[in-house]
Amino acid sequence: MAGKSRLSDWLRRRSGDGDDRADAAPAARSREDLRREDLLLSAAAATFSLAPAAHPSGVSGYRCSCDRIGCPTPGMHPVSFAWASQATTDPEKITHWLRGQPLANFITPTGSSHDVLDVPAGAGRIALARLATEDASAVGPVASYSSERLLFFTATRGTPVDENEWWPCELDCHPETLDEHPGLRWHCRGSYVLLPPSRLPSGDGVEWLPGHGPDRALPDPLPLLEILNDASSQMGHQPEAAAWPL
């Protein structure tokens, strides 16, 4: 029995992957894990498909769990290259991932059930203040990405009945083009965002804003785009004319 106990302790330390949470009290871990599970299953119930992502790891907090030397996006990329087809809303599959990968972040692909308008936090809060007095129903789920950006979830434009009706937009943002869009970004087909309650290498996280969780209705992206664009312009992020939908 003593040998079995030592083996169990070793396996628990290995599953922690060097993270301080591996040494936390079991009760504390359970509360955090239950909250995490509830948030992710709530997102799946709201039609946001999920796939596992890497997580920050190591003593410094800046090494990625993928163990890739020089990983350019530590803790912020999917585990599988097949993330788009792997993503699901199936609660049994998601629960299996959660129990098997207790430290993993999760991403949600955009361009299927939803898109995301991603703006600097200052611009996002200007827009939220304006919409609170003009049309609060124009705002759906909103997540904070650290203290730097806000993610506005909207209905998607990425899956029209007629493929020829899909219109391009220079604001479209994909994981490899994030640096090209410091102001307003539109995550649609071929992109993804981290879902709450993901952890970032900085020690910050991705969290739903109070009152703006995944249960809110997804708004039309175009009216919201106009307001976010105005707010971004006030913050000094002015998109070029070509950035507007054709």
Description of the molecule:
This protein is 31% helix and 15% strand. The chain has six helices and ten strands; from the N terminus they run ααβββααββαβββββα. The strands form three sheets. It has a five-stranded antiparallel beta sheet with strand order 8-5-7-6-10. The chain has a three-stranded antiparallel beta sheet with strand order 1-4-9. A two-stranded antiparallel ribbon has the order 2-3. α2 packs antiparallel against α4 and α5 crosses α6. The longest helix has 20 residues. The N terminus and C terminus are likely disordered.
Write the SSE topology.
Layout: H1 2-15, H2 26-45, E1 51-53, E2 56-57, E3 63-64, H3 83-86, H4 91-100, E4 105-109, E5 115-120, H5 121-134, E6 142-145, E7 149-154, E8 185-187, E9 192-194, E10 206-208, H6 221-234
Antiparallel strand pairs: 1-4, 2-3, 4-9, 5-7, 5-8, 6-7, 6-10
Helix pairs in contact: 2-4, 5-6
Essential attributes:
single chain, alpha+beta, 5-stranded antiparallel beta sheet, 10 strands
* Overall average residue pLDDT: 82
| Rg calc | 19 Å
Ends distance: 69 Å
Q: Sketch the topology as an H/E string, one letter per element.
A: HHEEEHHEEHEEEEEH
Sheet with the most strands, sense and barrel status: 5 strands, antiparallel
What's the total helix number? 6
Overall SS class:
alpha+beta
- In the sheet with the most strands, the strands line up as 8-5-7-6-10
Which consecutive residue ranges, at least 5 long each, have pLDDT under 50?
Answer: 1-27, 240-246
Shape descriptor: globular
Strand content: 15-25%
Secondary structure: helix percent: 25-40%
